[in-house]
Amino acid sequence: MTGVKQKEAAGRDRMQIDREFAREVEERSGQKIDLCYQCLKCFAGCPVSRYMDYKPNGVLRLVQYGEREKVLKSHAIWLCVSCKTCGVRCPNGVDMSQVMDALREMSWQAGLAYEAEKRVVMLHEEFVRSIKLWGRLHEVSFFLPYMLRSRDFFSNMASAPKLMLRRKLPFLPTRIKGIAEIRKVFAGTHEAGGGHEKGEGE
Hints:
By secondary structure, this protein is mainly α. It has 2 domains: 3-113, Fumarate Reductase Iron-sulfur Protein, Chain B, domain 2; 118-191, no CATH class. Helices cover 58% and strands 0% of the residues. It has helices spanning 3-29, 41-45, 56-64, 68-72, 76-79, 85-89, 96-109, 118-134, 139-150, 160-165, 179-191.
């Protein structure tokens, strides 16, 4: 095979890989990635885009180009706060928050998340663990393990006394009556190929 033919074959293989990544993101997010034509309205309205390594429209472009590792290692997917501003502004109705959510899950499953935003991932994992344990967020049992894992002992301590005075920080958790139903949701998500392992946090 000549050098030219080898390059053509490699190009065809790359295009196949590219489209597979975009298709997977579309399936997980329920959004039509190809509808994005880079009008930049999502970027202009995003309240946290200034802190992102790739802007929201840039993330979509990378997905379209099949840059799987670059996207799943990015900081941008973990900085999205799911405010839905992008989806409201998009002329084609692409909800970027759904895309970001799918990319976060893919990043976590691929083991690439910790290279991007370690503390954000830890916070996410402890949040999920608290919901699985109690059916709701219990701030103390949620935040103490996060502090130990992240070694971030002081950045949020100033707000704790104020929350205690207002009785917004109960020490003892209460478990909701429908906890079994909550755990069924997690189990179903895991069986469908997403979420954390079944039984984690129980």
